[in-house]
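Please fill in the sequence for the structure shown.

STRUCTURE ENCODING:
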Protein backbone atom coordinates (compact mmCIF):
# COMPACT_ATOMS: atom_id res chain seq x y z
CA UNK A 1 0.00 0.00 0.00
CA UNK A 2 1.34 3.44 -0.87
CA UNK A 3 0.15 6.92 0.07
CA UNK A 4 0.92 9.80 -2.29
CA UNK A 5 1.16 13.00 -0.26
CA UNK A 6 2.26 16.61 -0.16
CA UNK A 7 4.05 17.68 3.03
CA UNK A 8 1.56 19.15 5.50
CA UNK A 9 -1.37 18.90 3.08
CA UNK A 10 -4.71 17.21 3.80
CA UNK A 11 -3.02 13.92 2.85
CA UNK A 12 -1.38 14.06 6.29
CA UNK A 13 -4.69 12.89 7.82
CA UNK A 14 -4.43 9.63 5.84
CA UNK A 15 -0.77 9.40 6.82
CA UNK A 16 -1.71 9.68 10.52
CA UNK A 17 -4.44 7.03 10.09
CA UNK A 18 -1.95 4.64 8.47
CA UNK A 19 0.49 5.17 11.33
CA UNK A 20 -2.29 4.60 13.88
CA UNK A 21 -3.09 1.29 12.16
CA UNK A 22 0.54 0.32 12.50
CA UNK A 23 0.99 -1.89 9.43
CA UNK A 24 3.69 -1.43 6.81
CA UNK A 25 3.05 1.10 4.04
CA UNK A 26 5.05 3.30 1.70
CA UNK A 27 4.74 7.01 1.10
CA UNK A 28 5.76 9.05 -1.90
CA UNK A 29 5.76 12.83 -2.16
CA UNK A 30 4.10 14.56 -5.10
CA UNK A 31 4.81 17.91 -6.71
CA UNK A 32 1.25 18.70 -7.77
CA UNK A 33 2.32 21.87 -9.58
CA UNK A 34 4.78 20.01 -11.82
CA UNK A 35 2.55 16.92 -11.85
CA UNK A 36 5.45 14.60 -10.96
CA UNK A 37 5.96 12.16 -8.11
CA UNK A 38 9.27 11.97 -6.22
CA UNK A 39 10.23 8.96 -8.39
CA UNK A 40 9.44 11.10 -11.47
CA UNK A 41 6.21 9.39 -12.47
CA UNK A 42 3.50 11.39 -14.24
CA UNK A 43 1.10 12.04 -11.36
CA UNK A 44 -1.88 12.61 -13.66
CA UNK A 45 -1.51 9.02 -14.83
CA UNK A 46 -1.97 7.98 -11.19
CA UNK A 47 -4.70 10.46 -10.28
CA UNK A 48 -6.15 12.41 -13.22
CA UNK A 49 -7.72 14.79 -10.67
CA UNK A 50 -4.20 16.02 -9.93
CA UNK A 51 -4.40 16.21 -6.15
CA UNK A 52 -3.43 14.29 -3.05
CA UNK A 53 -4.19 12.17 -1.10
CA UNK A 54 -4.04 9.07 -3.28
CA UNK A 55 -3.93 5.58 -1.82
CA UNK A 56 -2.46 2.95 -4.12
CA UNK A 57 -3.77 -0.42 -3.03
CA UNK A 58 -1.90 -2.65 -5.47
CA UNK A 59 -3.02 -4.42 -8.66
CA UNK A 60 -3.95 -1.08 -10.20
CA UNK A 61 -6.47 -0.15 -7.52
CA UNK A 62 -6.31 3.57 -6.67
CA UNK A 63 -8.47 5.33 -4.09
CA UNK A 64 -8.80 9.13 -3.96
CA UNK A 65 -10.70 11.70 -1.82
CA UNK A 66 -9.46 12.04 1.74
CA UNK A 67 -12.70 11.19 3.59
CA UNK A 68 -13.15 8.04 1.46
CA UNK A 69 -9.56 6.95 2.09
CA UNK A 70 -9.89 7.60 5.83
CA UNK A 71 -13.10 5.58 6.13
CA UNK A 72 -11.73 2.77 3.99
CA UNK A 73 -8.65 2.51 6.21
CA UNK A 74 -10.71 2.64 9.42
CA UNK A 75 -13.23 0.03 8.23
CA UNK A 76 -10.56 -2.33 6.91
CA UNK A 77 -8.63 -2.12 10.20
CA UNK A 78 -11.29 -2.18 12.89
CA UNK A 79 -8.84 -3.23 15.61
CA UNK A 80 -7.30 0.24 15.39
CA UNK A 81 -10.65 1.71 16.53
CA UNK A 82 -10.45 4.72 14.24
CA UNK A 83 -14.18 4.97 13.45
CA UNK A 84 -17.46 3.75 14.97
CA UNK A 85 -19.23 0.89 13.17
CA UNK A 86 -21.12 1.83 9.97
CA UNK A 87 -24.85 2.32 10.52
CA UNK A 88 -24.52 3.58 14.08
CA UNK A 89 -25.42 7.08 15.25
CA UNK A 90 -21.83 7.45 16.46
CA UNK A 91 -20.64 6.76 12.89
CA UNK A 92 -23.08 9.34 11.52
CA UNK A 93 -21.71 11.93 13.97
CA UNK A 94 -18.16 11.08 12.93
CA UNK A 95 -19.10 11.42 9.23
CA UNK A 96 -20.84 14.70 10.04
CA UNK A 97 -17.54 16.07 11.34
CA UNK A 98 -15.48 14.59 8.47
CA UNK A 99 -17.86 16.22 5.99
CA UNK A 100 -17.79 19.56 7.79
CA UNK A 101 -14.01 19.50 7.81
CA UNK A 102 -13.88 18.62 4.12
CA UNK A 103 -16.58 20.75 2.57
CA UNK A 104 -16.59 23.72 4.94
CA UNK A 105 -13.30 24.16 6.78
CA UNK A 106 -10.85 22.73 4.22
CA UNK A 107 -12.51 24.66 1.40
CA UNK A 108 -12.51 27.90 3.42
CA UNK A 109 -8.69 27.74 3.57
CA UNK A 110 -8.39 27.46 -0.23
CA UNK A 111 -7.69 31.13 -1.10
CA UNK A 112 -5.04 31.35 1.63
CA UNK A 113 -2.87 28.83 -0.21
CA UNK A 114 -3.31 30.35 -3.68
CA UNK A 115 -0.52 32.72 -4.76
CA UNK A 116 -3.01 34.41 -7.08
CA UNK A 117 -5.40 35.39 -4.25
CA UNK A 118 -5.64 39.12 -3.65
CA UNK A 119 -5.23 40.55 -0.11
CA UNK A 120 -9.01 41.12 -0.07
CA UNK A 121 -9.69 37.49 -1.02
CA UNK A 122 -7.31 36.36 1.71
CA UNK A 123 -8.97 38.60 4.30
CA UNK A 124 -12.36 37.18 3.31
CA UNK A 125 -11.03 33.65 3.56
CA UNK A 126 -9.67 34.33 7.07
CA UNK A 127 -13.14 35.52 8.06
CA UNK A 128 -14.70 32.37 6.61
CA UNK A 129 -12.21 30.16 8.46
CA UNK A 130 -12.89 32.06 11.69
CA UNK A 131 -16.61 31.41 11.31
CA UNK A 132 -15.99 27.66 10.86
CA UNK A 133 -13.63 27.65 13.83
CA UNK A 134 -16.44 29.23 15.91
CA UNK A 135 -18.58 26.20 15.06
CA UNK A 136 -15.85 23.75 16.10
CA UNK A 137 -15.21 25.71 19.30
CA UNK A 138 -18.88 25.28 20.24
CA UNK A 139 -18.64 21.52 19.58
CA UNK A 140 -15.63 21.25 21.89
CA UNK A 141 -17.14 23.42 24.63
CA UNK A 142 -18.36 20.47 26.72
CA UNK A 143 -14.72 19.54 27.39
CA UNK A 144 -14.57 16.42 25.22
CA UNK A 145 -11.09 15.19 24.38
CA UNK A 146 -11.82 14.44 20.74
CA UNK A 147 -14.17 16.03 18.29
CA UNK A 148 -16.83 13.32 18.47
CA UNK A 149 -16.30 12.23 22.08
CA UNK A 150 -13.71 10.43 24.15
CA UNK A 151 -12.24 8.20 21.42
CA UNK A 152 -9.69 9.38 18.85
CA UNK A 153 -10.99 8.87 15.32
CA UNK A 154 -10.17 9.69 11.70
CA UNK A 155 -12.31 12.85 12.15
CA UNK A 156 -9.71 14.07 14.66
CA UNK A 157 -6.84 13.35 12.29
CA UNK A 158 -8.47 15.38 9.51
CA UNK A 159 -9.68 18.24 11.72
CA UNK A 160 -6.23 18.48 13.31
CA UNK A 161 -4.42 18.74 9.96
CA UNK A 162 -6.77 21.42 8.64
CA UNK A 163 -7.02 23.44 11.87
CA UNK A 164 -3.22 23.40 12.15
CA UNK A 165 -3.01 25.27 8.83
CA UNK A 166 -3.97 28.33 10.91
CA UNK A 167 -0.34 28.34 12.05
CA UNK A 168 0.83 28.80 8.45
CA UNK A 169 -1.79 31.33 7.33
CA UNK A 170 -1.60 34.09 9.93
CA UNK A 171 -4.65 33.03 11.90
CA UNK A 172 -4.23 33.16 15.68
CA UNK A 173 -5.64 29.87 17.00
CA UNK A 174 -5.53 31.28 20.55
CA UNK A 175 -8.85 32.99 19.73
CA UNK A 176 -10.41 29.52 20.03
CA UNK A 177 -9.08 28.09 23.32
CA UNK A 178 -10.80 24.69 23.09
CA UNK A 179 -9.72 24.22 19.49
CA UNK A 180 -6.23 25.39 20.38
CA UNK A 181 -6.03 22.77 23.17
CA UNK A 182 -7.39 20.15 20.77
CA UNK A 183 -4.69 20.93 18.19
CA UNK A 184 -1.98 20.74 20.88
CA UNK A 185 -3.41 17.43 22.19
CA UNK A 186 -3.47 15.79 18.78
CA UNK A 187 -0.04 17.20 17.86
CA UNK A 188 1.31 15.36 20.89
CA UNK A 189 0.32 11.91 19.62
CA UNK A 190 3.35 9.82 18.64
CA UNK A 191 1.77 9.02 15.26
CA UNK A 192 1.27 12.71 14.50
CA UNK A 193 4.86 13.55 15.46
CA UNK A 194 6.00 10.67 13.24
CA UNK A 195 3.89 11.90 10.31
CA UNK A 196 5.43 15.40 10.55
CA UNK A 197 8.91 13.90 10.70
CA UNK A 198 8.34 11.56 7.75
CA UNK A 199 6.91 14.46 5.70
CA UNK A 200 10.07 16.46 6.30
CA UNK A 201 9.09 18.91 9.01
N1 LIG B 1 -11.52 16.60 -2.69
C1 LIG B 1 -10.14 16.29 -2.38
C2 LIG B 1 -9.35 17.56 -2.24
C3 LIG B 1 -7.89 17.26 -1.97
C4 LIG B 1 -7.05 18.51 -1.93
O1 LIG B 1 -7.57 19.65 -1.82
N2 LIG B 1 -5.75 18.30 -2.04
C5 LIG B 1 -4.81 19.40 -2.08
C6 LIG B 1 -3.87 19.38 -0.89
S1 LIG B 1 -4.75 19.63 0.63
C7 LIG B 1 -3.97 19.28 -3.33
O2 LIG B 1 -3.38 18.25 -3.61
N3 LIG B 1 -3.99 20.36 -4.11
C8 LIG B 1 -3.24 20.43 -5.31
C9 LIG B 1 -2.16 21.43 -5.19
O3 LIG B 1 -1.94 21.93 -4.08
O4 LIG B 1 -1.48 21.70 -6.19
C10 LIG B 1 -10.05 15.42 -1.11
O5 LIG B 1 -10.88 15.63 -0.20
O6 LIG B 1 -9.17 14.55 -1.03
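FILLED IN BY: designer on duty
SEQUENCE:
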Amino acid sequence: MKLFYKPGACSMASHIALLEIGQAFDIEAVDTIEGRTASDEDFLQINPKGYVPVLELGEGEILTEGPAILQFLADRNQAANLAPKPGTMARARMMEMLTFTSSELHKAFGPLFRDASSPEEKAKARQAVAQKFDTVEKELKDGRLYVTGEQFSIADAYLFVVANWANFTDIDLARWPKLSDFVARIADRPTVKAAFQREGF
